[in-house]
From TrEMBL:
Pfam families: Alpha-amylase. Its EC number is 3.2.1.1. Keywords: Carbohydrate metabolism, Glycosidase, Hydrolase. It catalyses: Endohydrolysis of (1->4)-alpha-D-glucosidic linkages in polysaccharides containing three or more (1->4)-alpha-linked D-glucose units. The lineage of its organism: Bacteria, Bacillati, Bacillota, Bacilli, Bacillales. GO terms for molecular function: hydrolase activity, acting on glycosyl bonds. SUPFAM superfamilies: (Trans)glycosidases, Glycosyl hydrolase domain. Belongs to the glycosyl hydrolase 13 family. This is Alpha-amylase.
Length: 538
């Protein structure tokens, strides 16, 4: 496969709102990112992905843009942005932005115009109908909202404040392409493209045998026939003209479909994020079952991409709970399980992404009170389910496990006031465990999760085999051991991660030199709870 900078890079995702506040308003900002660049450089990451920092009323924390060419007031100014970008580049690092192209905020001037009258020139920039379809929105409730002024309904796949743009209209597409080019010309190095598989819709009713008010309509709004034409045009008119990296958020794509999305000949993006492994980890089942399932899924992605496409590798992001609390064991094996999971995903073929706080093993947050949650998806879920009569306790139990706020509590820098995130009142409560779980404590500890991440990054960069080698699952007797071999020219590297809290029989079947481990003492023919090792095979 072609060698390129973004294949050799490690990406760090910043949820800006929760990263570092310098203004004292309790909301993370761009100057906060600039302030922490030395930290990110010492971690060894190369590309920073910034969650949306555009002007926004923040109904969905920036995924509701009201001006694509302005910075959200809480996060700073365009000058702060330019300064941050220059500081990133002067360190040899790169910046990718989050592009929200499926919808805008209802506060965007385009929507103000569109809803002003039926014959406004921008009426057709959004999707208006006399009669709505029977779809449910992804965040609960109906997907259409009635506008009394013009007597029509508009479509919104997410909240009613995130209005779907009409991609069928060429003027809309042109305007978005111009905006993308404007950012590239400003110097950004690529994009994570939000909710990309919803651009095309099949605006017809879902079957509704149970006579529900609204019906989940995933297949009418996701990967609808014709979407590739939009994506191809988007690529050709923007990204393809520059040396930028793109990664599309394309949840429901499966490995056998990856060619038209990301192959080097016909792909529309360099990489996509698939959620398949995350969706199939069932927290009610045991580790054996889950590890076998994700092995099957991730192996399929590795094999399908072999020689034709590049994977994105990730454990966490701002929409998922913390993996040390879900896939791992944050009570009994916090350090071991965070590092074993890290070792498992980090050395496969693809570009690894680290979500802020993952590198120190941040955990889910135990908010007991629904009022502490800030996420609109969580709040809507609670509201609609309560309306349907689901008991409060049952909902709180589910929310604690899956709420997106689990990953959105402020970054834990040290054990002082508000973990060093802000001197003001944080927009969301901190996880109280910052008194012992923080960057400062882990920086000075050679056995910390943070130190392990640093070692992984150094190792990945020092071996071409870990970048460009093929990947093959390795046989093991234990179902909860995830082992694979990377092979390149004459080098073979074995990665073994035991993803359970029991002990299991395992021995190295060939001669090998240990390159990395998350334990310092080893047992004969045995892997300890959440033990992980990397060997250079002879
Ligand atoms: C993506 C984002 C998520 C957001 C949604 C709507 O899934 O990752 O945070 O709520 O799109 O833009």
């Amino acid at each position: 496969m072609k060698k390129t900078w973004w294949k050799e890079a490690v990406v760090y995702q910043i949820y800006t709102r929760s990263f570092k506040d310098t203004s004292g308003d309790g909301i993370g900002d761009l100057n906060g990112v600039t302030e922490k660049l030395n930290y990110l450089q010492s971690l060894g990451v190369d590309i920073l992905w910034l969650c949306p920092m555009y002007k926004s009323p923040n109904v969905d924390n920036g995924y509701d843009v009201s001006d694509y060419r302005e910075i959200m007031a809480e996060m700073g100014t365009m000058q702060d942005f330019d300064n941050m970008l220059a500081e990133i580049h002067s360190r040899g690092m790169k910046l990718i932005l989050d592009l929200v192209l499926n919808h805008t905020s209802d506060q965007h001037p385009w929507f103000h115009e569109s809803k002003s009258s039926k014959d406004n020139p921008k009426r057709d920039w959004y999707i208006w109908r006399d009669k709505p379809t029977n779809w449910e929105s992804i965040f609960g409730g109906p997907a259409w909202t009635f506008d009394p002024k013009t007597n029509q309904y508009y479509l919104h796949l997410y909240t009613k404040n995130q209005v779907d743009l009409n991609w069928e209209n060429p003027e809309v597409r042109r305007e978005l392409y111009d905006m993308i080019i404007w950012w590239i010309e400003k110097g950004v190095d690529g994009f994570r493209v939000d909710a990309i598989n919803h651009l095309k819709k099949d605006l017809t009713d879902m079957p509704n045998p149970e006579g529900k008010n609204y019906v989940p309509a995933w297949r009418k709004m996701t990967n609808v026939e014709g979407i590739q034409d939009f994506l191809k045009e988007l690529r050709d008119e923007t990204f393809a003209k520059y040396d930028v990296v793109t990664v599309g958020e394309a949840n429901s794509i499966r490995a056998h479909e990856l060619a038209e999305w990301i192959s080097e000949d016909e792909g529309k993006f360099n990489m996509i994020f698939s959620l398949e492994a995350h969706e199939n980890w069932n927290q009610d089942l045991d580790a054996d079952h889950n590890v076998m399932t994700i092995k099957k899924i991730l192996d399929r992605w590795q094999r399908s991409a072999q020689g034709i496409a590049w994977n994105s590798l990730y454990l966490e992001n701002h929409d998922r709970p913390r993996t040390v609390s879900t896939w791992g064991d944050d009570r009994n094996y916090w350090r071991e399980s965070a590092t074993a999971l890290a070792c498992m995903y980090f050395f496969m073929q693809g570009t690894p992404f680290i979500y802020q706080g993952q590198e120190i093993g941040m955990t889910n947050v135990p908010f007991d009170d629904i009022k502490k949650y800030r996420d609109i998806e969580t709040k809507n879920f609670y509201r609609y389910k309560r309306m349907q009569g689901v008991p409060h306790e049952e909902l709180m139990e589910a929310i604690k496990k899956v709420s997106r706020d689990n990953a959105r509590t402020p970054m834990q820098w040290h054990d002082g006031t508000n973990a060093g995130f802000t001197v003001g009142k944080p927009w969301i409560d901190l996880n109280p465990n910052y008194n012992w779980l923080n960057v400062e404590a882990q920086t000075v500890d050679d056995r910390s999760i943070l130190s392990f991440y640093k070692k992984m990054i150094v190792l990945r960069k020092s071996r071409e085999c870990l970048l460009y080698g093929s990947t093959k699952l390795a046989e093991t007797d234990c179902p909860d051991v995830y082992a694979y071999i990377r092979e390149y020219e004459n080098t073979r590297i074995l990665v073994v991660s035991h993803l359970d809290s029991d002990g299991c029989h395992w021995s190295l079947r060939e001669k090998g030199q240990l390159l990395l481990a998350n334990y310092t003492e080893f047992m004969e023919q045995k892997l300890q709870p959440y033990e992980a090792r990397v060997y250079l095979l002879e």
